[in-house]
Amino acid sequence: MFEILDRRTSLTGNQIKILAAAIIGDALEFFDYFLIGFVLAFLIGPWKLTFGQSATVLMSSGIGAIIGAYAWGWLADRIGRRKVFIGTVLNFSIATGLLYFTPDNGWIYLSILRFFVGVGVGGLYCVDLPLVQEFMPSSKRGWVGGLVTCVIPLGVGLGAVMGALVGSGDWRLLFAIGVLPALLVLLVRLWVPESPRWLCRQGRYEEARKSLAWALQMEPSALPLPTAADAGPIIKSNWLDLFKYPRSLVVSWLGNAGAQTGVYGITLWAPSLFVVLLKVTPQEAAKMMILLSVFGFIGRLSFAFFSELMGRRNAGGLLGFGAGLMTIVAGYNYDVMFMGVSAFWLLLAVAFFFADGGFAIVGPYAAEVWPSHLRTSGMGSAYGFGGIGKIIGPVGLALIVGSGNYLKPDVPLPQIPLAFVYLGCWFLMAGAVYYFLGIETRGKSIEEIDRELTLAPDLPAATASVRQA
């Protein structure tokens, strides 16, 4: 049955609806997630926050994302992609809305609610990409997966625009706007059916045929009834099964850790660093972030194209090496002006082309390197392990600069170059992992990838609990 899907050379209207739901979800998801960077720029002065307190606020969502990625990713393999998609959107939208009630000087309240925002964001990211990929022909999978992530900088850009427009005393309104993603649940309920490949894995063959027929806009009777041969045998997986695929684990876990540590360390701190280093207002800092978002968006479009042009391994190497070098160069030029413009700002924008743009590879590829019965569990584990970067990225910068220092423009920060060397080295590690250890998936169907992984010597056939359909 899935051979008919893979022979398609264009997307139907319903496949575009699935893609649109995921695109809107990712944009609004990361709008919610990165709002705190813009809000913090308003609070560092009035609340007299130290680097340590600010880092606690920033890293709390990272801790939540680790737990959310593991838990929601595992759940999506057990109860289905669609239900988990809806649950995660409600999770982070409601938590963001509750931040509207943050009391003055309530950085602990901020940290607690941001933890729950992270739980939802970590979960959604790990289910929407596999859901989209499982409806797409193999010739479009890399490009479409990259396209889903392309809108994440637009979510950050939307936060930058909102941050530039609100007054200093109106920062809570940003959190009220963060409730809007909950409306996406209505679109998902109307548009998106359950993944046909997941349904096949559960032995629900008639439902799988109806789901794929809807996506391809044909009558179910025009498709053959799938069997175990279409999507593999029905496997009762265990989370520990992930360790039977060591290469998939190393590539997806370390690639995510390197990329997330670097990009979250920069993105969450950048608005506040612009205020401190360049002596601009929080509104001006938010406007400066728009340029970084534009470069990130262009980068994601480019890397979505690169994934098919040069393959996943080469594109992954390019993102890591490019982002690492540009981040280090930016750090060493934090106090340099070029024709009256901050070189630090311009260099970070170029770094974002690789650092943020490369997530058009990081996310989709982390799902592709796992077999079908472990796809969301594997991607969730990779995103969850990489979520350590949401902690050690912002916290690492704070520790290097001095966690007890106050975020004030008159505090000298000679350790900034070393802090950016630290972040840049994480990108370089990700590039090395993708280029030297990566599994090339370009042009291969999901079933081909499954067969190659199953035949690999690190998966003993007797270890999976298999029952016949």
UniProtKB/TrEMBL annotation:
Bilayer-spanning residue ranges: 21-45, 51-72, 84-101, 107-131, 143-167, 173-192, 286-303, 315-332, 344-367, 388-407, 419-437
UniProt keyword annotations, A-Z: Membrane, Transmembrane, Transmembrane helix
UniProt cross-references to SUPFAM superfamilies, sorted A to Z: MFS general substrate transporter (SSF103473)
InterPro entries named in the record: MFS_dom, MFS_sugar_transport-like, MFS_trans_sf, Sugar_transporter_CS
Cellular component annotations (GO), alphabetically ordered: plasma membrane
Membrane topology: Multi-pass membrane protein
Primary subcellular site in the record, as a coarse category: membrane
Domain Major facilitator superfamily (MFS) profile: 18-442
PROSITE patterns, per database record: MFS (PS50850), SUGAR_TRANSPORT_2 (PS00217)
Cell compartment(s), UniProt: Membrane
Keyword Membrane: yes
Keyword Kinase: no
Pfam families: Sugar_tr
Any one GO MF annotation of this record: carboxylic acid transmembrane transporter activity
Official protein name in the record: MFS transporter, putative metabolite:H+ symporter
Organism: Bradyrhizobium lablabi
